[in-house]
What we know:
Oligomer: single chain
Radius of gyration: 20 Å
Number of domains: 1
Shape: globular
Amino acid sequence: MKMNPIVLMIVATLFAGLNPLVTSASDACWPQFLGPGSRALSTNSNLPDRWSAVVNVAWKTQIPGRGWSSPIAWGDRVFLTTVVGKDDAELPQKGLYRGGERPEAASSEYQWKVLCLDLLSGKVLWERLVHHGTTPGPVHAKNSYASETPVTDGERVYAYFGNVGVFCLDLEGRPVWSKSLPPHTMRHSWGTAASPVLHRDRLYLISDNEEQSYLLALDKQSGKEVWRVDRDEKSNWSTPYVWENERRTEIVTPGTDKVRAYDLDGKLLWWFKGMSGITIATPYADRGLLYVSSGFVADKLRPLYAIRPGGSGDISLAPDQTSNSAIAWSNPNAAPYNPTSLVYEKRLYVLYDRGLFGAFDSRTGKPLFEQQRLPDGKHFTTSPWAYNSRVFCLNEDGVTFVMRAGDKFELLHTNKLADDDMCMATPAMVGDRLLIRTSARIYCIRKASSSQ
């Protein structure tokens, strides 16, 4: 059944910021990276907890090119991005962090595309070429030129490709507007990955790079620049978060030098120091607290923070502090590197890149269990997600570890996809369907007993 997209947009907007705990308000919208409220949660009781490359697979569709962006969905449509070029068949080494630098950009021509699939069948409804040409610069062998997840408001899709630009399409794939963005050098030529966010009539983009970092607000109807704030930051890969709290609405932007929050006009509200050398995870909020993390694996400082609303100016912790009037609690060694942490049923779960899993009380930071080894877990880039009192962690080999949500570590079982499915994109949940994008294809996972 098709639902009115305007109704879905209103419901999703209300629930995304004002009540981020209830993330499946419309149950038919997954409009951005990590879903409504950037929470990676669903309340749909019919979602499956067992699957393979053939079991509980409603459909699977081959995707051309390469892209580590996550799928998004609105109603019965699924959107994702990809870039088609000469590297399509060359998969990066799993678990590779060092040694994958590419000092020179490829000279051949690439195609930047936005795809729309039918949620019920997996059929490609349209495929839009939005840009073609040589690459704007090299990327790490493990990255892609389509690592930013698009965002939608139910009327348009906004696809941001880092050092290329942003492209606005309607739901039929017709171009509405586009805006080119000048490329900037990233740390060690690793490439870009921070996704765009929508709030009301504005689209927010962040570019933390080695040359001139900035936060940009665009009018979503026209693509015209509303404001731009320069940032004293180097390369980061964290997606901004629009925090609608009891005091105000603010744009939270983690960084290596500082975590900063701006008002909707780009005015700096508060900031604090004390992050690791690289910041990737996305901030999010739960029950009045904002959660921010930074866990570069090569640093001793890998902090996780829970922040109260209403901060002003410098809210940094003193050297001997773990909390203050603005920071409810912190842990200097709890943060993951690539994955975003997860708050679910009053517990904060952390998935570490090298196959360790821990949990804390989300209100106090008290450890519940710390760094339990996932057997043969190997390397993780995707963020964990949760539903039905289960927490799910997908590794780069296509194996999902299913844990019971609780104060103790309890691994229930694992789900394995095909051998050629490398996984670095965080899945999406739409109604009773789980969408998993891999290096080769996208799966729609659904209980076989569910009615069509």
